[in-house]
Design brief:
Elements lengths: L1 H8 L19 E5 L17 E2 L11 E3 L4 E4 L2 E5 L1 E7 L2 E5 L1 E4 L7 E8 L6 E7 L3 E2 L14 E12 L8 H6 L4 E7 L6 E7 L26 E7 L4 E6 L2 E7 L14 E5 L12 H4 L6 E14 L21 E10 L2 E10 L3 E9 L2 E10 L2 E10 L9 E8 L5 E4 L3 E3 L5
Parallel strand pairs: 3-7
Antiparallel strand pairs: 1-19, 1-24, 2-8, 4-5, 5-19, 6-7, 8-18, 9-15, 9-19, 10-12, 10-18, 11-12, 12-13, 13-14, 15-16, 16-17, 20-21, 21-24, 22-23, 22-25, 25-26, 25-27
Family: Belongs to the glycosyl hydrolase 16 family.
Keywords: Signal
Protein name: GH16 domain-containing protein
Length: 421
């Protein structure tokens, strides 16, 4: 598996090796990789089907300018190496980097990235956003004109490994800072408003953060950590840090009732902030031991019915990436007269066959096969025998079989007993 390989070969890793995956799916649901917004960065250049090495509409926030020369793919990571700009350009003196998705269709689903921040006062970020479009009709502010427009921004994480001279600076070094923004360009020329909620006290309202801190003593520049968001619907986003629930945001509805209702593009970039001072020095920007942000991977998932296909916007090329740990787990069992009802979870990178088997005294007394679609799914099934007593002291096991019918994973056997009074 990829995580095992990284643990053995990467000198950049120390801790935070927890296996990353979306939350447990609801019964009847499945998580499946969204190819257009997922990348393991295992090549030697950006995948041009998926990524730009710049931002379509934004040069950067002075003094840092987005510079394609800072972006590289090597050693299993997408790297952004911040530096001094070779030729200062008006207000711009620093080179940061921006990797933006070609696609602009990221919508409700799960988005996660595993990265290690630089140790300078520039951010390492992972977020979604879209462009300003005309606002149709009257909004909650009571405005209705031809000029007004709106856009959305979902900041999954903004990490800063340097020491910011603000009281809240430690938050960006020691945990996960996330926000939701709804931007509004009003009827008056030049007016722009932001309606925000989130853990980031610099740009949000500083609320709704629960378990968004790294273990005591750890900082974002030391190790790789996994940052994720489940964009659930038009009004709600859940956030996760290293697979742990980190907070929930009910998106601000000051402008409209269902604000998170448009697809977005994805951004992985480094930048300077107006409130992030002091700025990195030329010496820090020349120090390759602290000036680089390392992105191990980015993964995105559709949430679909367990037996339905996800319509991919970008088809997979070659063998499936090693994302899921092939496994099956029996979740619940319930004996109802002569029928055993059960639910189970499974994970697989490829379509497989599940062999559902009931054994007794080491002998198989029942078996059936079910086709499972690739992903992380949760489903229900049942076994019917002649009489309830036939189940007594039997064991239920679910095996995953490859296309060649070889067992690739098996659940822990679950004992079935008949309660005879």
């Amino acid at each position: 598996m990829k995580l095992i390989k990284l643990a053995l070969t990467s000198s950049l890793l120390t801790t935070s090796l927890a296996y990353a995956k979306p939350p447990e799916p609801e019964l009847g649901k499945r998580w499946v990789i969204n190819n257009a917004y997922s990348d393991e960065f295992n090549g030697n250049s950006l995948d041009k089907r998926k990524w730009l090495d710049h931002h379509r509409t934004w040069k950067g926030r002075p003094p840092a300018m987005f510079d394609p020369s800072t972006v590289s793919v090597q050693n299993g990571n997408m790297q952004i190496t911040n530096k001094m700009l070779e030729k200062p350009n008006k207000k711009f003196t620093i080179s940061g980097g921006a990797v933006q998705s070609i696609g602009q269709t990221a919508y409700h689903g799960f988005y996660e990235s595993r990265f290690k921040a630089s140790r300078i006062n520039m951010s390492t970020t992972f977020w979604l956003s879209n462009r300003n479009v005309p606002f149709e009709g009257k909004n909650h502010l009571g405005q209705d004109c031809e000029r007004d427009g709106w856009s959305m921004e979902l900041d999954i994480v903004e990490a800063v490994g340097g020491v910011i001279d603000k009281a809240f600076g430690a938050n960006f070094r020691q945990g996960m800072q996330y926000n939701t923004h709804v931007w509004y360009s009003g009827c008056e020329k030049g007016s722009r408003s932001r309606f925000s909620k989130g853990a980031n006290v610099a740009e949000g309202d500083g609320t709704q953060a629960f378990n968004n801190k790294l273990p005591k003593g750890e900082e974002v520049w030391q190790n790789f950590n996994t940052y994720a968001a489940w964009w659930k619907d038009e009004n709600e986003v859940d956030f996760y840090l290293n697979d742990g629930f980190a907070g929930r945001i009910q998106v601000d509805t000051s402008l409209l009732e269902k604000p998170y209702s448009r697809p977005m593009s994805m951004q992985l970039l480094t930048e300077t902030y107006d409130w992030g001072r002091p700025l990195p020095t030329p010496e820090q920007l020349a120090d390759n031991s602290i000036n680089t942000s390392y992105y191990d991977w980015v993964r995105s998932y559709y949430y679909v019915d367990v037996d339905k296909d996800a319509v991919q916007q970008l088809e997979r090329v070659g063998k499936a990436d090693d994302i899921f740990v092939e496994s099956a787990t029996v979740k619940t069992t319930k004996l109802v007269r002569d029928t055993l009802q059960f639910t189970y979870l499974y994970e697989t990178d490829e379509d497989v066959t599940a062999l559902i088997e009931l054994t007794k005294d080491s002998q198989s007394i029942y078996s059936q096969t079910v086709k499972l679609k690739a992903g992380y799914g949760h489903l229900a099934d049942q076994i019917k025998l002649t009489k309830a007593m036939d189940f007594d002291n039997s064991q239920l096991t679910i095996h995953l079989l490859s296309n060649s019918q070889q067992k690739i994973a098996s659940s822990k056997p679950v004992k079935v007993s008949v309660n005879v009074k």
